[in-house]
Amino acid sequence: MKADLIVGIQWGDEGKGKIVDRLAQNYDAVARYQGGHNAGHTIVVDGKKIALHLIPSGVLNKSAVNIIGNGVVVSPEALIKEMKQFDDLKGRLFISEKAHMILSHHIAIDQAKERLRGAKAIGTTGRGIGPAYSSKVERSGHRIGELRDIERLSESLKEYFEINKPVLETLGVEIPSFGKIKEELKIYQESLLPYIADTTKMVWDLLRENKKVLLEGAQGTLLDIDHGTYPYVTSSNTISAGACSGLGLSPKDIGKIVGIAKAYCTRVGNGPFPTEDFGEDGKKLRDRGHEFGTTTGRERRCGWFDAVACRYACRLNGCDELSIMKLDVLDGFEKVKICVAYEIDGEISEDFVFDLSKVKPVYEEMDGWDRSEGVSKFENLPKNAQKYIKRIEELTGTKIGMISTSPDRKDTILL
After folding, report:
1. 37 carries an active-site annotation
2. pTM of this structure
3. All domains of the chain in start order, with CATH
4. Distance from the CA of 151 to the CA of which of 27, 67, 145, 358 falls in 20 to 30 A?
5. How far apart are the first and last CA of the chain?
C-alpha cells in the first residue's frame, strides 16, 4: 500500500483541514509531516467549528490513528492545550520521538528578532517555529523523546543557556532558573509520555499491513523554505517531498497527491503577492470568506486566483488532481479574474519567477455568478461557475477532482 498525500498549493490557509477531515473517514491513519502550531486547520461539522494546530485533521474519525511526524516542531504547551478538546486520544494519537520541541526560549527569540527587523519584518506568527528549526539544524535542539529522561534533558538545557547567555541577554531573552526548567519539563512529561512513539516504524508497519494512510502538511507550497517566496516563507519544506523526510518514508511510498487551492488567493504576513486586490473586491473576498487566521486571528490579504503560481506548485508537488475550495465566496461578483501570465519589465511570461516583487499580473476576466453555495453536484453549479472551474483546469494543466461550496463537510462536489 502507498500513502496518499494532501498538500497546499498557495500560501497556506487553502482549506486543507476540510478535505483531510472528509477523506479521513476512509483512512486508517492520518500523519502530519512538517510545520508547527503556527498553522491551523478549521473544520466545520454540523455547524460546529473545531480548530486544530498540531493534531492531524483525522482526529474526528474515531477509528483513525493520528500521527505527528518527526518533521513537525512541537510546542508541548500548545499540544497539551489542544489535546484537551478531546477525551479519547489514547491509542489514537502518537508523537514522533524524533520531533523537535519548541520551548519558551524559542518563542522569546522569535519575537525579539522580529521586533529587531523593524520595517523588514518577515511577518512570522511569533510562535518560535523558526528558532526551533534553527536549533534542530545547528544541533542544539531537543527532541520530544528526551522527555523520557528529565534529569538529562534539564542538564542539557542548562548547558545551552550558559553557552548562549551573551546572545540571549542581547536579545532581551530571560534565562529561566534550573528549577523552573525542570518544573516545566515535568508537566510536559506527565502529559505527553504515553503518546511518544517510533512513528516512522509505525507508518512502515501500517503500509506493510495494507492500511490506508493519508499524509497532511501545514502552510502551502509558496511558503516552502526552498521553493517559496523566500525570505517570506516558513522554516520547513511544505511541498510533497517534505513528507518523505518529515515521516521517514521513501518516494516510492507516496501514492496519490492532491493539491488544495482556494478559488481565489490569500496570504498572511509580509511578502510579495501579485494578485492582491487593495480595493473593494479584496475587502469583499475577506469578509465573505471570513479570511482571518486560525492561529493568530490576523486579517488575510486577499486577491484573485493566480494560475501561474498554481501551475508551478502543481508541477513541483506532482499533483494528480486539484481540490478547489471556497467557490461560494465568489458568489455575487459581476466579474471574476484569473491571473494567466506575469508582466516583468514590459515582457510577458507564463512562468513563475524568483522575485515576485517585480511582477504585474496579466488578468483574464470572466463573467461572475450567484448561488453556488451548498451545491453538491457539478451540473447544478451556475454555468459561469462551471466555466471558471474548467478554465482553472486548462490553465494549471491539472484535473480538478473536488470542489467545496461551503465550510461544511457535506457541501462538496466530487468529480
Report:
1. no
2. 0.91
3. 3-74+200-414 (3.90.170.10), 100-194 (1.10.300.10)
4. 67
5. 24
